[in-house]
Amino acid sequence: MTDAIADADSGSCPLHIDLRDPHARATMYDTYAALREREPLAPAIMTFSDQDELVFTGTLGREVFLATSYDAVLEALTDGRFSNDARTMMTPEQRAALPPAPDAFRPLDRNLLALDPPDHTRLRRLVQPTFTPQGMEGWRPRIQAIADELIDDAEAAAAARGETAPNRAIELVESFAYPLPMTVISELLGVPQEDREKVRAWSEALIENQAPTPETGAVLDEFAAFLHGLFDEKRERPADDLTSALVRAGEEGDRLDDDELLSMVFILIVAGHITTVNLIGNIAIALLNHPEQRARLAANPDLARGAVEETLRFWSPVEMAAPRTAREDLTLGSTGIDRGRVIFPALASANRDAARFVDPARFDIERPDANRHIAFGKGVHLCLGAPLARVEGQVATSTLLRRLPDMRLAYPIDAPPLHPSLLRGPDRLDLLF
Predict the structure, then answer these.
(1) CA angle, 244 as apex, 242 and 245 as ends, to 5°?
(2) In a 10 Å sphere around its CB, with 0-12 CB exposed, 13-18 middle and 19+ buried, how is residue 53 labelled?
(3) CA-CA distance, 374 to 319, in Å (whole number)?
(4) How many whole angstroms separate alpha carbon 224 and alpha carbon 218?
(5) pLDDT in tens, 326-361
(6) Labelling 316: which of 170, 250, 274, 423 has CA 20 to 30 A away?
(7) What is the pTM of this model?
């Protein structure tokens, strides 16, 4: 039993989960297991940073419910009685009491992740046709070419340093896991090559500090100015990319206003690459720590799809879905939830629930029901980019096994870390090959 659970059992309820604590982050799967057995919908106070009162519209720092079982998480994600937009459940007085946010954050109020139908449905319909499984399969040859180019660059860099196989070095995140999805989403959106390093820096800064502070506001101002310039370029010289298509949609009728266009492309850039960076790093760690699974995959490359799905289940790149707010008094399982109460759906916990997956702590790339994971969420907010992430993960897995057959960890790492941003994945992964 974890320290947090023991404290709650001793009478200091609700459970306090402080993700500023490295021990709490490192033992989250133990905490989840204890909660699933003890109280799968548990009162909790979540602390992620010193600025919690500014994040998730004031949700953090006050009591919420933490859903940890597969069934409870699935219901929270799919039940229309829950809202993604906590502000719709607030009184005018409560909204007025929220800390003021910099003007730079105003356009992001209406993004896909924070809206409910019908607004969410209208916006998602504009981009959904691009991100179909069939559409993303069409990108597979280009994704494969990018992956091979990145490995070519890593081999050339090692040769320039005088390194030879099997003792060449590669830092996988910087050299492969990051540039692969970043290049793909940039090409899909039509972001020029010369601007991608700036976009990366802005994205990383916003992920590391999600509170609406003056510092993050300044980053957003720079990012927004760049995007407005990109939109102007696409209006004058439209190309065969998604940004040009979205700009045209805004000009063809009242379907996408300026703020919606800005928030849409912003979310696609940031959310369209960072979780896949974590997925690729997690795949590498999983295979290197499970040599028997790696051998099976090397013998049968067609198992790459299974390896991706099992990694998504075993080490979900996104620990928790966005919080849901009850629109009305309701019952979830056997727990009564008052209108306005908030639930955090723990995707990572649901994907390790023994009531849904046999022997869930075992990594098995041939698990027959691995694709029943909910790492991409579920319901109307199912991750828009899931088909793209799957193709990128499959290509990355196959490429690493084919091009770096002797790869190994330069130092022991048993599991990818959980970050206060609720993303799970390595910031750095040094390999030898």
Answers:
(1) 60
(2) middle
(3) 11
(4) 10
(5) 999 999 988 999 998 999 999 999 999 999 999 999
(6) 170
(7) 0.91
